Amino acid sequence: MNRSNKRDLPKLTEEYSFLAGPRSRFRELYFTLKVFWNFVRGFRTMHFIGPCVTVFGSARTESSDPFYQKAEQIGTAIAKMGFTVMTGGGPGIMEAANKGAYMAGGYSVGCKIILPTEQEPNPYLHKWINIPYFFIRKVLLVKYSYAFIVMPGGFGTMDEFFESLLLVQTKMIEEFPVILFGKEYHKELVEHIELMKTNEMISEGELSSLFITDSVEEVVEYLETYSVKKHGLKKVFFRRKWWLWEQNHTKDKFITK
Q: Which Pfam families does this UniProt record tie to the protein (predicted)?
């Protein structure tokens, strides 16, 4: 497993300073260069991980929780399809999805955010990276994935859920599946989405990528139709395993305007 030295992690005082308002031009330039370098680190680390499915969800979910067990089953199922399972690399739902993939012999990766209450990456990762900035981490969690599975979670999970929908809505990325797992947990959220549609804040067509389910089997079927077949993925021999790979290696997953 790939592990980095915690002593090398940057401190968060810089983020507080950056968000406090304008600073000297030199400090802003220096910060921009650090952002650039962290993007390069992320791209180099994740370049050969293969097509992913990203699983979002709470870091606070205990292993005894039914949603932890469902996330583990989902990790196993999508790994067996040939996808790399990507998460935020932390505990809870993220750990469960990574564990399912790892124990099934699939490939499991994490893109972890550095927070003041530092948490160790979960033990079910073949590869992971620490990212000091949320916006870089969010780009990496989207860039390599052909679907997004949203399990029960809090503010961070909702942020990732709506950003995924927004990127599809605004055609910044292709129309990849956004799967909301847990009908009862997300009942009020779905009702509010329907309210937005009723008030014409969003249109029916802008929800075409959203799928809501309680079934792991339905997740697999939906991914097979709207990730694998729709985007022309096929299996090739890669890293001593069969992985899904792009049929056309020159094709950019992101829409070029």
A: Lysine_decarbox
